[in-house]
Amino acid sequence: MSEPTRTPLPERAARRCHNAVNPLHSFHYFSPELADEMGKIGLGDSSAVYLATRAAAFGRVGAGAVTASFYNFSPELVARHVPAVWETAAPEAVLRARLRTVDRSLRRLLGDAAVESAEMKDAARLALKAAEACRPEARPLYAAHADLPVPEEPHLAYWHAATLLREHRGDAHVHVLLRTGLDPVEALVTHTATGRGMVPRFVITSRGWHRADWEAAVARLRERGLLDAEGELTEAGQALRARVEAETDALDTAPYAHLGAEDVARLTELAIGFTRAGIAAGAFPAGIFGKE
């Protein structure tokens, strides 16, 4: 049976869909439910919680695999917690606690009616369909999560699909950063300078870097003509960041092309609704995004 003919996607439709779906994946990282559920299995340090939560799909990996795949976390921070974290909480226990966290946090942020709605079921169906076209080659975080079972509950299935789509694009993004010569801290500095990233004080602390690391990266970027004296992106810096996103888009077209223009538009519409509701309910801490 031949594949149906699909209408070409409008320009930037794939990225708009990604930008609409992606935030919901991240809600649980900032939720009080995560600290509560991970505390029940013995994890109290916030860095250990994040690293274990995101890396558990790998199984009992060491610091090298986490540092390589996460890309912009300090090797020193990762080695402080991995692989020791698995002695406190096995990856399987972390994954179960993560799903409990997602269930509780989405119900709190969106409400039971939204979680159990026909719209949520439709969003899960469409996002999972998009993820069918994701490829595992050279995408370790995506591939590890793709090996996990799809949860039965629609809101958890939607979150799972959002995770697959996020990590699929994220793994591609790392390849582009390497090709464009932005090391982990430089990538963080330039992203913050766009105004679309998280504020430096949060990034530096949460990723385990020191202020000296940040300032050294700023100096290197100035030498390359990518930042000006005020720390703003120069014209060349803006062009480089645009190139990074465009090349990442090019490596992340398959899921949305597979979905087709009509379904991409519908998933974007649904995702915007859920994402906006979650943000309005306080999914992210105030003042976490921006340049300062």
Main traits of this protein?
292 residues; mainly alpha; 67% helix
Structural notes for this entry:
- With 292 residues, the protein is an all-alpha fold.
- 67% of the residues lie in helices and 0% in strands.
- The protein is built from 17 helices and no strands.
- The protein is globular, with a radius of gyration of 19 Å.
- The chain starts with 12 loop residues before the first helix and ends in a 12-residue tail after the last helix.
Q: Which helices and strands, and how do they pair?
A:
Blueprint: H1 13-26, H2 32-40, H3 46-55, H4 63-70, H5 75-81, H6 85-88, H7 91-110, H8 112-115, H9 118-131, H10 140-146, H11 154-179, H12 184-193, H13 200-206, H14 211-223, H15 235-250, H16 254-259, H17 261-280
Helix pairs in contact: 1-11, 1-17, 2-7, 4-5, 9-11, 9-17, 10-11, 11-15, 12-14
* Helix percentage: 55-70%
Number of strands: 0
| Uncertain parts | 1-5
Order of helices and strands: HHHHHHHHHHHHHHHHH
* Structure annotation, total helices: 17
- Find the structural class using helix and strand composition: mainly alpha
Distance from first to last alpha carbon: 55 Å
Radius of gyration: 19 Å
Main sheet overview: none
Strand-residue fraction? under 5%
The average pLDDT score comes to 96
Quick synopsis:
The chain is mainly alpha-helical and 292 residues long. The chain has helices at residues 13-26, 32-40, 46-55, 63-70, 75-81, 85-88, 91-110, 112-115, 118-131, 140-146, 154-179, 184-193, 200-206, 211-223, 235-250, 254-259, 261-280.
